[in-house]
Design brief:
Elements lengths: L1 E7 L4 H11 L6 E8 L5 H9 L3 E3 L7 H12 L6 E4 L8 H6 L4 E5 L11 H8 L3 E8 L9 E8 L6 H25 L2 E4 L2 E4 L2
Parallel strand pairs: 1-2, 1-4, 2-3, 4-5
Antiparallel strand pairs: 5-6, 6-7, 8-9
The protein binds 5-O-phosphono-beta-D-ribofuranosylamine.
């Protein structure tokens, strides 16, 4: 049984999709051991509580990044995590924290990276006029929205889209992509060659 930790700051729909896929057996032999947030008001915490999953709040406001991450690390340690999934965690991790979990931290980003890193990626893509948008699940490294790519899903932009309708279709794909990526990583049949995740046959 692999222990997954979720880090989130907001509504938690990606977390909820992962939890649903674990419950239905689509992500086998795994459980969400803990949901941690830097914000006590994150909607995802309430979802976790409803599902009976332990929650942790480590407030980040006004704290130096590494100090906050050390507190977070201490709080996560008892849960023996095999994998950490950032799911709308609105805080850049310190290089120190990234190094505590080499190739064991994933993030989801609502664009086809390397296009549109950073905040409001769907709005950026829409305003840029792309015809194909999408989402990316990648390993976390020391740079923002940057590590090796595990899964991407494309979402065509429709003529009558606005940034909200596009974002909600991307979100549907995020909910599928994250579980797909978790399965690939937990199965462990891959290597990282340069930036490329290459799956074993
Ligand atoms: C998602 O769009 C995700 O790609 C981005 O933050 C948003 C989180 O949404 N990193 P939710 O909290 O999972 O609903």
């Amino acid at each position: 049984m692999k222990n997954i930790g979720i880090l989130l700051s907001g509504r938690g729909s990606n977390f909820e999709a992962i939890a649903r896929n674990i419950a239905s057996g689509k992500i086998p032999d795994a459980k969400i051991a803990v949901v941690a947030s830097n914000r006590a008001d994150a909607g995802g915490l309430a979802i976790a509580q409803k599902l009976g999953i332990p929650t942790i709040v480590v407030p980040s406001k006004g704290k130096e990044r590494k100090q906050h991450d050390q507190e977070l690390f201490e709080a996560l340690q008892p849960h023996n995590l095999d994998l950490i999934c950032l799911a709308g965690y609105m805080r850049l991790l310190s290089p120190w924290l990234v190094q505590q979990f080499p190739q064991r931290i994933l993030n989801i980003h609502p664009s086809l990276l390397p296009a549109f890193p950073g905040l409001e990626a769907q709005e950026q893509a829409f305003a840029y006029g792309v015809k194909i948008a999408g989402c990316t699940v990648h390993f976390v490294d020391e740079e923002l929205d940057h590590g090796a790519i595990i899964v991407q899903r494309a979402v065509p932009v429709a003529e009558n889209d606005d940034e909200h309708s596009l974002a909600s279709r991307i979100l549907e794909q995020e909910h599928l992509a994250y579980s797909e990526a978790i399965n690939i990583v937990l199965e462990g049949k891959f290597e990282i060659v340069g930036r490329r995740l290459v799956r074993a046959h």
